[in-house]
Amino acid sequence: MKRIYSIGGGKGGSGKSFIATSLGVLLAKQGKRVVLVDLDLGASNLHTLLGQKIPQKGLDAFIDKETRNLEDLALPTTIPNLYLISSTKCSLEIANLFYAQKVKLISAINDLPFDYILLDLGPGTHFNTLDFFLVAPEGLFVATPEPTAIENTFNFIKSVYLRKLKLALKQTNMWYVFKEEIAKLSRGTLKSPMELVDILVKREPEKGKLFEDLLKRLKFKLILNKFRGQVTENLGEQLVDVCNRHLYPSFEFLGNISYDSRVYEAIVARHIFIRKYPYTKTVSDLQTMARTLTEKRQQPAELRISR
Ligand SMILES: Nc1ncnc2c1ncn2[C@@H]1O[C@H](COP(=O)(O)OP(=O)(O)OP(=O)(O)O)[C@@H](O)[C@H]1O
Ligand SMILES: [Mg+2]
Questions:
Q1: Tens digits of residue pLDDT in 17-31
Q2: For a disulfide at 81, which of 28, 69, 164, 220, Cβ 3.0-4.6 Å?
Q3: Res 224 pLDDT > 90
């Protein structure tokens, strides 16, 4: 059974790439066939976290149509079963992909023949980042337990909902019917995508419900990284509770990952942290998380709305 997870969250430096790499290594060690896709176009660095040199082949070859099959760009790593599709050769300009290129890439990612496909995203809420985040039916948000990071995460979540809603509306005539309201949302007169959904449900109950279901189907898992002793132990549960009450009940807390200064040392020395320091609290936290991700259950299927 194939699973796709995107790993994102608005804040830069929260540990998205470290977690993507670590989960990739742990899942591969469980015997799963795993591919890490570096979608931080223009600033990719998964190869460094894996202690490898700059890969010679990457996403640019697929985007430039030199390689037709994305799987051919999945290069083996030093960990058996773990593959990397790098984007080191993608320049910053490529971060502004044409829509058609992006759709092709997204569809090719979905078709990759691996047990686990882990998508590492860059920071911020650029629409490309949101679209890549939405490739997966389940997204992992990485935040750190600081108010700024938590604020950014909430913004990111709202932006993901908004992007999903806008893309779906654009495919139907509802886009024209509710043009005014959509403009209000963009201007900030309407505060959240949920408010727009409420309007849709009131005015067009049947179709409105479909859009509501579409957003409710998105599943999110929160990870608190760089967790230190002085932080309230159940902060993650509290945050997820707030999200489930104020957004949609789609949030689950995946766990805390302890701060360890040796993560930095390992990265600087180009060692894989998990290999170098396997008996640390940080690795045991990551192992618990990897086990949760392999629990037997289906990922939610994509809901399509027709005209
Ligand atoms: N659990 C941890 N304990 C200690 N340091 C950590 C931990 N996780 C990450 N770091 C540190 O945070 C830095 C940033 O991590 P990482 O590159 O994974 O963040 P990111 O969210 O991918 O950043 P960007 O948004 O720029 O892509 C790492 O270089 C490492 O030094
Ligand atoms: Mg990163």
A1: 999 999 999 999 999
A2: 28
A3: yes
Q: Which phi and psi angles does 155 have, rounded to 5°?
A: -60, -40
Tokens of 219: 């599943």
Closest ligand 1 atom to Cα of 19: 18
Q: Using the Cα atoms of residue 171, residue 173, residue 174 and residue 178 in order, give the sign of their dihedral.
A: positive
Strands of 121-250, DSSP E: 138-143, 219-227
**Nearest ligand to the C-alpha atom of residue 38:** 2
Evaluate whether 40 touches 48 at the Cβ level (below 8 Å): no
CA atoms of 4 and 239, how far apart (whole Å): 24
CATH T-level topology, domain 3-147+218-293: Rossmann fold (3.40.50)
Q: Give residue 95's pLDDT band: very low, low, confident or very high (50, 70, 90).
A: low
Domain ranges of the chain: 3-147+218-293
Nearest 5 degrees, angle CA 42-CA 48-CA 50? 125
CA distance 233 to 254: 13
Torsion sign over Cα 90, 92, 93, 94: positive
The closest alpha carbon to 160, from 138, 183, 187, belongs to 138
Distance 75 CA to ligand 1 centre (A): 23
Alpha helix ranges (H) inside 171-204: 174-177, 179-187, 193-203
Residue 74, token pair as written in the block: 């999945």
Residue 264 Cβ contacting ligand 1 at under 6 Å: yes
- For residues 105 and 305, what is the distance between their CA atoms, to the nearest angstrom? 22
Task: For residue 227, give the nearest of 278, 267, 282 by alpha carbon.
Answer: 282
Instruction: Kindly state if the Cβ of 14 falls inside 6 Å of ligand 1.
Output: yes
Q: Which residues contact 170 (CB under 8 A, 6 or more apart)?
A: none
Nearest to 47 by CA among 30, 24, 70: 24
